[in-house]
Amino acid sequence: VQTCALPISSNLNQHQKNCFEQLKNIISSHNTIYNKGQSVKDWLQDSSNQIALDSFTSLKFIGLNLITIPLEINNFRNLHSLNLSENEISEIPTDLDLPNLELLWIDKNKIIYIPENLRLPNLLSLSIVDNIISKIPKKLSCPKLQELVLAKNKISKVPNEITINSLIKLILQDNMIIYFPQSIKVLPNLQ
Fold first, then answer.
1. Which of 43, 45, 46, 40 is nearest to 68 (CA)?
2. Contact of 104 with 85, CB cutoff 8 Å
3. With DSSP H G I counted as helix, E B as strand and the rest as coil, what are the percentages for the chain, rounded to 5?
4. Which residue has the higher pLDDT, 188 or 132?
5. Alpha helix positions (H), 76-159
6. Residue 1, exposed/middle/buried by CB under 10 A (0-12, 13-18, 19+)?
7. The pLDDT of residue 149
8. By CB count within 10 A, which of 9, 100, 158, 178 is most buried?
9. Rounded-to-integer distance, Cα 142 and Cα 92, Å
10. Exposure string (b/e) for 154-168, b if CB count within 10 Å is 16 or more?
11. pLDDT by residue (tens digit) across 123-143?
């Protein structure tokens, strides 16, 4: 299933709606990963599309066989939610610059690790379910992160010094964890 969804509301003008349709056509018209990725990058770099990019708060690029998160996604400056599930993505770039992003789903990909220096200042929820992550980072540069969902990965232990103090939920079911350190109880908001 391939999904490219950007919400179209009645608040968008015709130019913005046309830009969105153009992007959807690019994604659906290419049958190779390289051509699709390159065309999307070209579209995102086209300055005539910036007004449309600024108007979107949600993106869903699901099942598009993306192998990387293109840094051109940073052009969506007002993005609040981003769903990149069911792709072939193996790493989360540390230079993602999405200052308003609150929700990020990267489920059913090939993510190996979560970079500690991932800087998403307003991120509230990060879901990386059904990937191949083997360890939880001790800290993240996401000061507002409340929910970290890492179910169905390859995690075997929780670090002793986990310091993601804003966490309320840490979901780890269907991993290979046999021991939880006492230090996890020190996280002030964890439920």
1. 40
2. no
3. 25, 15, 60
4. 132
5. none
6. exposed
7. 97
8. 158
9. 14
10. ebeebeeebebebbe
11. 999 999 999 999 898 888 899
Residue 39 in tokens: 């065309």
Q: Report the C-alpha gap between 137 and 169 in whole angstroms.
A: 15
pTM of the model: 0.82
How do 3-5 and 58-62 pair as beta strands?
Answer: antiparallel
| Cα–Cα dist 120/137, whole Å | 15
**For residue 62, what are its two tokens?**
């699901």
Where are the strands (E) in 57-189, listed by range? 58-62, 81-83, 103-105, 125-127, 147-149, 169-171
Which amino acid would we find at residue 95? D
pLDDT digits (tens, 9 = 90+) for 2-36: 445 554 444 566 766 676 676 666 655 544 444 55
